[in-house]
């Protein structure tokens, strides 16, 4: 097998490549960027090499941001030549990048043909007691099938899952953006935190997201602390249980409503997995903790929609709903987008909602909006998409009705 690599679909879970790839120049090369250590070890064994090469190559890719095998100096010339022939290290194509005055950075990646084949990644820096934090908000799908009524991604509909190299490629690119001018030997990883809160529902692209998060945690790659990798879900209950078995990362739940009636409207997957099931799954996730603190709590995300879910009775319902779930609540001021049927709750309204929850003993924070000058608010990516459905219009009617009811109730 000197000039051919045979890669079974089994060992390349979720990767896009042909199953038998003759190493002619025209053949599609195997992209190593999105392979977990286990996959890379299998790959090296399959091409007749020692599996420890996997760790070496991973370090070059994810710690030194090298894409050219010629620069991998601890690998023999012969093996480098072989690798060059059959594989590549390729991040998704950046079609747009924007670096904001406040340090926020945004990338738009092309992940296919056609106007809609774009995904976004945002990096948000912040100072905290541990120093400078750089949090990267990563996308997992092109569009999203779940159609939450306040979400611009949902309005695009679902196009496709991202592959592992497209997911980890976002982290790779963000790190590389700080190291481009730095000599290879001096390069470092800059991104300190990852939140799977970009476009898409990560638990509906489970295998690719899981192997990407394994690369994030792997000491041969990004070596991130499990507390600093957060997966956000709108509540795909069976997959929350699976996640608990497969990996130890922080969990965030997009709650957004404290009762089933309202949540069915805002987060339609609630009709399939209602609140009682969701809260129970969160409790199981925390209970699964065999060791330390990653799973002491879940983060509850709650977008503040004026006149919709921001009333005192909603805060009271939250208190009841979450009373047996160790949680930290993050109130998110709604980010408007074109044709959005909602408004952002006023600052006072958000603060008084926060106070009710804090007084009841919850840790409750308000998310800072950042990167406004580059339209880079997390959770509202590719903001300028056309509403391809008539859903926004229908929602607008419902919201107007609800606001009218609230007004007449005084
Ligand atoms: N699909 C996953 C992760 C992506 S959305 C999820 O729903 O959790 C990431 C977060 O941004 C979610 O909490 C989502 O509800 C929130 N979000 C979506 N649209 C938003 C908007 N217009 N304003 C504020 N937050 C929004
Ligand atoms: Fe999908 Fe999350 Fe947007 Fe809902 S909020 S439509 S689950 S990306």
From TrEMBL:
Q: Does the keyword Glycoprotein apply?
A: no
Where do the annotations place [4Fe-4S] cluster binding? 144, 148, 151
Per its UniProt entry, what is the enzyme's top EC class, as one word?
A: transferase
Instruction: Give a yes or no for keyword Transferase in this entry.
Output: yes
Pfam families (alphabetical): Radical_SAM (PF04055), RlmN_N (PF21016)
> What does the entry's cofactor note say about binding and number?
Binds 1 [4Fe-4S] cluster. The cluster is coordinated with 3 cysteines and an exchangeable S-adenosyl-L-methionine.
Which catalytic residues are annotated? Answer: 120, 378
Q: Assign the protein's first listed, main location to one coarse class.
A: cytoplasm
Q: Where is the composition biased (Low complexity)?
A: 15-26
Q: Name one GO molecular function term.
A: metal ion binding
Name the family the entry cites: Belongs to the radical SAM superfamily. RlmN family.
- Write down what this protein is called: Dual-specificity RNA methyltransferase RlmN
This protein's species is Acinetobacter genomosp. 33YU
Q: Which gene encodes it?
A: rlmN
């Amino acid at each position: 097998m000197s000039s051919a690599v045979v890669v079974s679909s089994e060992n390349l879970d979720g990767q896009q490549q042909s199953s038998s790839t003759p190493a002619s120049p025209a053949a599609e090369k195997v992209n190593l960027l999105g392979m977990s250590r286990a996959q890379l070890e299998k790959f090296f064994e399959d091409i007749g090499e020692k599996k420890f090469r996997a760790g070496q190559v991973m370090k070059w890719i994810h710690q030194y941001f090298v894409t050219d095998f010629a620069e991998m100096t601890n690998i023999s010339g012969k093996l480098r030549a072989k690798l060059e022939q059959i594989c590549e290290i390729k991040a998704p194509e950046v079609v747009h990048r924007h670096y904001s005055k406040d340090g926020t950075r945004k990338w738009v990646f092309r992940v296919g043909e056609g106007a809609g084949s774009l995904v976004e990644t945002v990096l948000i820096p912040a100072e905290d007691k541990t120093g400078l934090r750089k949090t990267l908000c990563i996308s997992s799908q092109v569009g999203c099938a779940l159609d939450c009524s306040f979400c611009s991604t949902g309005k695009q509909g679902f196009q496709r899952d991202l592959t592992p190299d497209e997911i980890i490629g976002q982290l790779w690119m963000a790190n590389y953006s700080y190291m481009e001018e730095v000599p290879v030997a001096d390069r470092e990883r800059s991104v300190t935190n990852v939140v799977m809160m970009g476009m898409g529902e990560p638990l509906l692209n489970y295998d690719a997201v899981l192997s990407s998060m394994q690369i994030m945690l792997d000491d041969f790659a990004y070596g991130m602390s499990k507390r600093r990798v957060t997966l956000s879900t709108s509540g795909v209950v069976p997959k929350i249980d699976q996640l608990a078995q497969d990996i130890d990362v922080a969990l965030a739940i997009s709650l957004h409503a404290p009762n089933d009636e309202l949540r069915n409207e805002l987060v339609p997957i609630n009709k399939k997995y209602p609140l009682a099931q969701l809260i129970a799954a969160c409790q199981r996730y925390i209970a699964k903790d065999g060791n330390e603190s990653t799973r002491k709590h879940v983060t509850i995300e709650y977008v503040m929609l004026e006149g919709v879910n921001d009333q005192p009775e909603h805060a009271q319902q939250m208190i009841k709903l979450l009373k047996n779930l160790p949680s930290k609540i993050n109130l998110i001021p709604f980010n408007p987008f074109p044709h959005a049927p909602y408004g952002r709750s006023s600052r006072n309204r958000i603060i008084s909602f926060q106070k009710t929850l804090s007084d009841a003993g919850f840790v409750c924070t308000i998310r800072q909006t950042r990167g406004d000058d580059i339209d880079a608010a997390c959770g509202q990516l590719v903001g300028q998409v056309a509403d391809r459905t008539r859903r926004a219009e229908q929602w607008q009617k419902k919201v107007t009705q609800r606001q009218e009811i609230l007004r007449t109730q005084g």
